[in-house]
From TrEMBL:
Cellular localization per UniProt: Cytoplasm, Cytosol
Residue runs in coiled coils: 129-225
Assigned protein family: Belongs to the WD repeat ATG16 family.
Superkingdom per UniProt: Eukaryota
GO CC annotation terms, alphabetical: Atg12-Atg5-Atg16 complex; cytosol; nucleoplasm
One GO term (biological process): protein transport
Keywords: Coiled coil, Cytoplasm, Protein transport, Repeat, Transport, WD repeat
Reported function: May play a role in regulating epithelial homeostasis in an ATG16L1-dependent manner.
WD repeats: 336-377, 380-421, 422-463, 560-589
SMART domains: WD40 (SM00320)
Protein name according to UniProt: Protein Atg16l2
Organism per entry: Loxodonta africana
Record Gene3D superfamilies: YVTN repeat-like/Quinoprotein amine dehydrogenase
Keyword Repeat: yes
Length: 623
């Protein structure tokens, strides 16, 4: 602690509290020094007097040998002692008085020491009092400020209460208005539902009427052909060597024979031919060749009728180029937040440079794959609900999507608005795929139906009733395969009304993928396995499992690679798993940008890129 003699550097900055302490110490030193300056001389004087008294008492004390008691003549002994005590006090008395004075001096010293201590304590209490008074003043100033702040806050509270009351009144009004709007919305939804049902009924009636007219037209055409064949069979024709001399009857018969006859008329004509008289070789050979052509035309006609209502030959898409060897993806090249909410579906176009993604935000986005990056191409709007499935037709000119709005919608690439709406399901549509024949598609729904659609006429040509929810469908040449919630895969012949085969699997079927050669089927199910089914023997060939692989939802999609060498699927933890179909072993697992469950994956037809989408709005391009 610094005292009065501690040097202070003038240029050094001194804190206010240090200066205050130094002043207090100096004041205490001065006070105590003043007290001791008065007390010490008095104490010294008392000690000197005590020493003098002690010396004086020692000198006054008589020695025993020298001192003889003398008495005045005529006085008594007692009178002489009293006189001696009055004139000269005895040494004992002087010692007592000296002792008393010493004790008094000691008491005075102790009291002086106590006075000094009390003075020091008084000084300390004075400094504490000053500190407390300064602190009290600061607290009073702070209390005044807090009172002012409290008054301001009280005013703000009153203002907020007034505003809250006004907003509460406005909220009540808005709530009442919202109730009215909700009631109006419910009425409009009911009206829309009624209108949709009426529209579906009208479409169904129109389709039935159109089918009836087509059947009547076909029957009339067949009847006319049958009558003309009967007339031509009864007519006798002479054929000369000169083709220019052929009569009109021969030409008429030749034109008539170009039409396909019925089997009964053909058999009757063949029987009558052997009953006729012998003709020339040229006539006979002509008749036989034309009969062969008629039979071929009849068979082709019946075959075409088995596939099409109108009897016209089916128009098939051009075949997609087959990938010779697919490349295994190893790293993520591009990551995008493609949609406003989770992404449910993804599909590559046949040229491998166009990609479509669909999500719960009711949008379909088209992307160009350029230089290992995804560039936005177009946004298709108009979907009535969340997108659950996306598919390109084999020509790459149309996009078909399944929605939660109980319908499938068709877009033309290059147009933003929907071209056609396929309505007729009574629950969510979970899958929509193009068939290999032009203007035909298949949809599956949670209403336990699978429907075939004629896209050219925009009506349902066939409805297949199933016992369970349909999660996915794929289409072959003449077969439709559907995966269901009751852990079964069903096969349907496009030319027949009934189910041809059922293959049970362990777990709800979430997706199906058909190989390019249509000989193998890949299924993904909720038992966290992938199964490869050999369609030639209708048996499960392989089962794929992996530690950590789990299906994240009922719509998790798994696919074959274009060359059918690998099977690809996404897991609930955001990882991609790739199995080798030939060996049955896990080839690799990819982890990276996905932080949520992977909903769907797609492998481009060239085999060079893979795209995965997840529930966290991400689209990832792998190379």
């Amino acid at each position: 602690m610094a005292g009065p003699s501690t040097p202070i550097v003038p240029d050094a900055p001194v804190a206010p509290w240090k200066r205050h302490i130094v002043l207090q110490l100096r004041q205490r030193d001065r006070t105590q020094k003043a007290l001791f300056l008065e007390l010490m001389p008095a104490y010294n004087r008392l000690l000197e007097k005590a020493e003098l008294l002690a010396q004086f008492s020692e000198k006054l004390q008589p020695e025993p040998s020298d001192v003889t008691p003398t008495t005045h003549q005529g006085w008594g002994k007692e009178e002489s002692q009293a006189l001696n005590q009055t004139k000269f006090p005895s040494p004992a008395t002087l010692r007592v008085k000296c002792r008393r004075r010493k004790e008094g001096l000691l008491v005075c010293g102790e009291m002086a020491y106590q006075v000094v201590e009390k003075s020091a304590a008084l000084g300390t209490l004075g400094s504490e009092l000053e500190q407390r008074q300064s602190r009290l003043a600061a607290l009073e100033a702070s209390a005044a400020q807090l009172k002012e702040a409290r008054a301001q806050l009280a005013e703000q509270v009153e203002a907020w209460q007034t505003l809250n009351a006004a907003q509460l009144a406005a909220y009540d009004q808005l709530r009442a208005h919202a109730g009215l709007q909700e009631a109006a919305l419910r009425r409009l939804e009911e009206e829309a539902r009624d209108l949709l049902e009426k529209l579906v009924q009208r479409k169904a009636r129109a389709a039935a009427e159109r089918n009836l007219r087509n059947e009547r037209r076909e029957r009339a055409k067949q009847a006319q052909v049958s009558q003309e064949l009967k007339k031509a069979a009864k007519r006798t024709v002479s054929i000369s060597e000169n083709p220019d001399t052929l009569g009109d009857g021969v030409r008429e018969r030749a034109e008539t024979l170009a039409l396909p006859p019925e089997p009964e008329s053909q058999e009757r004509e063949a029987c009558e031919k052997w009953k006729r008289s012998f003709r020339s070789a040229s006539a006979t050979s002509l008749t036989l060749s034309r009969c062969v052509d008629v039979v071929k035309g009849l068979l082709d006609f019946k075959k075409r009728r088995g596939h099409s209502v109108g009897g016209a030959p089916e128009q098939r898409y051009q075949s997609i180029p087959v990938c010779v060897a697919a490349r295994l993806p190893t790293r993520a090249q591009d990551v995008l937040d493609a949609h406003l909410s989770e992404v449910n579906a993804v599909c590559f176009g046949p040229n491998s440079s166009l990609l479509a993604t669909g999500g719960a935000d009711r949008l379909i986005r088209l992307w160009n794959v350029v230089g290992g990056r995804l560039e936005a191409n177009q946004t298709l709007e108009g979907a009535g609900g969340s997108i659950t499935s996306v598919d390109f037709d084999p020509s790459g000119s149309q996009v078909l999507a399944a929605t939660y709005n109980r319908a499938a919608q068709l877009w033309k690439v290059g147009e933003t608005q929907s071209k056609e709406t396929l309505s007729g399901h009574t629950d969510k549509v979970t899958a929509a795929k193009f068939k290999l024949t032009r203007h035909h598609a298949v949809t599956g729904s949670r209403d336990r139906t699978v429907k075939e659609w004629d896209l050219g006429r925009a009506y349902c040509s066939r409805t297949i009733n199933v016992l369970s929810y349909c999660h996915d469908v794929v289409c072959g040449d003449h077969i439709i395969i559907s995966g269901h919630n009751d852990q079964k895969i069903r096969f349907w012949d496009s030319r027949g009304p009934h189910c041809t085969q059922v293959i049970p699997v362990q777990g709800r079927v979430t997706s199906l993928s058909l190989s390019h050669d249509q000989l193998h089927l890949l299924s993904c199910s909720r038992d966290d396995t992938l199964k490869v089914i050999d369609l030639r023997v209708s048996n499960i060939r392989q089962v794929f499992r992996a530690d950590g692989f789990k299906c994240g939802s009922d719509w998790t999609k798994a696919v074959f690679s274009p060359d059918r060498s690998y099977a690809l699927a996404g897991s609930w933890d955001g990882a991609l798993y790739i199995w080798n179909v030939d060996t049955g072993k896990l080839e690799s697992s990819l982890r990276g940008p996905h932080c949520a469950a992977v909903n769907a994956v797609a492998w481009c037809y060239s085999g060079s890129h893979v795209v995965s989408v997840d529930q966290g709005r991400k689209v990832v391009l792998w190379h």
